[in-house]
């Protein structure tokens, strides 16, 4: 890396696939800053004493009056600006309560069906494990690896069925 590269800080460029999002963010930021400036100018006009002589002179001198208000002066006396889309906790709770009333009630029919299915899965899983254990006990040394692998595969299948039953029971009951 050359020393010139270290000295000159490059400007940030967003990746091409996020360019549109960065442009929207920049536009929103500019709009918020403009709204803050306008509100500060309105607040300054409302708080300034309105004398007819000064108002007439300022209108005649400048077609468009310019206000020199810094961001620090604009924030004094006003509540802090929230980000666009930010909600207070009370507003959020009210919205969530409204949504809760709009949702349909949860039917308990699924729990009984899930319990029945999980019971069937547990019994079939236990059946496969017991069957695999008896097959494994019958395998002799002269039969080769195939019966041993088959019995172990049946045992794994039984444990998978029991695990699925446990997950199903847990999802709908706990």
Would you give an account of this structure?
It is a single chain. This protein is an all-alpha fold and 174 residues long. The chain contains 7 helices and no strands. The chain has 2 domains: 15-102, no CATH class; 109-173. 70% of the residues lie in helices and 0% in strands. Helix 6 (109-138) packs antiparallel against helix 7 (145-173).
Task: Describe what is shown at a glance.
The chain is mostly helical. It has helices at 3-7, 19-47, 52-61, 71-75, 89-102, 109-138, 145-173. Helix 6 (109-138) runs antiparallel to helix 7.
Key descriptive features of the protein:
174 residues, mainly alpha, 2 domains, 7 helices
Oligomer: single chain
Radius of gyration: 36 Å
Question: In total, how many domains does the architecture comprise?
Answer: 2
Low-confidence regions: 63-67
- Backbone structural class: mainly alpha
- The number of helical elements comes to 7
Question: How many β-strands, per DSSP?
Answer: 0
Helix content: over 70%
The shape, in one word, is elongated
Question: How much strand content do the residues show?
Answer: under 5%
Please tell me the overall pLDDT: 78
Largest sheet: none
Give the end-to-end Cα distance, rounded to a whole number of Å: 58 Å
SSE sequence, one letter per element: HHHHHHH
């Amino acid at each position: 890396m050359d020393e010139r590269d270290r000295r000159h800080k490059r400007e940030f460029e967003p990746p091409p696939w996020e360019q549109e999002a960065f442009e929207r963010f920049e536009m929103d930021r500019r709009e918020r800053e403009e709204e803050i400036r306008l509100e500060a100018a309105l607040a300054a006009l409302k708080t300034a004493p309105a004398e007819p002589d000064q108002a007439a002179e300022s209108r005649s001198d400048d077609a468009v009056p310019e206000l020199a208000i810094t961001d620090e002066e604009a924030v004094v006396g006003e509540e802090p600006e929230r980000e666009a889309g930010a909600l207070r906790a009370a507003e959020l709770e009210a919205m969530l309560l409204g949504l809760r009333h709009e949702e349909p009630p949860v039917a308990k029919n699924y729990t009984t069906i899930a319990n029945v299915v999980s019971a069937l899965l547990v019994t079939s899983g236990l059946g496969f494990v017991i069957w695999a254990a008896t097959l494994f006990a019958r395998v002799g040394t002269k039969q080769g690896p195939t019966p041993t692998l088959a019995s172990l595969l049946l045992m794994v299948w039984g444990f998978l069925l029991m695990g699925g039953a446990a997950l199903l029971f847990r999802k709908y009951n706990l």
